[in-house]
Amino acid sequence: MLKIVRSLVVLGGLVVSGSLFAEGIEGPWLVEAKDAIISVYKCAPNSDKYCGSITWLSEPNYAANDDKGMAGKPKVDRENPNPALRDRPIVGLFMMWGFTKSGDGKEYTGGSIYNSRNGKTYSGTITVVNDRTIRLKGGYNVGFMLIGESQTWTRAN
User: Fold this and answer.
1) Of the residues 27, 72, 108, 138, which has the fewest C-beta atoms closer than 10 A?
2) Any long-range contacts for 63-67 (C-beta under 8 Å, 24+ apart)?
3) CA–CA gap between residue 54 and residue 63 (Å, rounded)
């Protein structure tokens, strides 16, 4: 009986350490405003590039006082510069792509980030702060610098 308990404790520890302390950027991330979760994953099997989609919104529907007449309806990509894409649902929206891990595994570069709030696409980098935190920077490349804004995301449970 004691061997079974020990085995379960070891197995449980492995499961907890694998899920709570996963390495890299794969998995669900709560954005800084805490109003959305972005799931980050490899863009394709055997790919070295990472992508992401919006998988949860705290407020998935437009507010009752929506000034564009969409009160109570599910949020869509209505700020997209391409009119043909403005009906895409926000939940499930493919919004980041092309990030490649650097040699030390702490930085992911070369990616793009689409901001559905303003319909713009930015160059981006992701820096792993620790197992539960990443720092995302999006903006415009000016020479060798990325000028823009940063956000800190925390791993969602």
Assistant:
1) 72
2) none
3) 19
Residue type, 122: Y
Contacts 24+ apart (CB under 8 A), 58-66: 58/34, 59/35, 60/90, 60/91
Q: How far is CA 48 from the centre of its chain?
A: 17
Into which CATH architecture does domain 23-155 fall? Beta Barrel (2.40)
**Phi/psi class of residue 15: alpha, beta or left (left: φ > 0; alpha: ψ in -120 to 50)?**
alpha
Query: In one letter, which amino acid is 155?
Result: R
The predicted structure's pLDDT at residue 23: 63
Global pTM reads 0.81
Contact 98, 49 (CB under 8 A): yes
In sequence order, what DSSP letters do the residues of 68-119 get, joined into one string? TS-TTSBPB-TT-SSGGGTTSBSTT-EEEEEEEE-TTSSEEEEEEEEETTTT
Count of beta carbons in the 10 Å neighbourhood of residue 86:
13
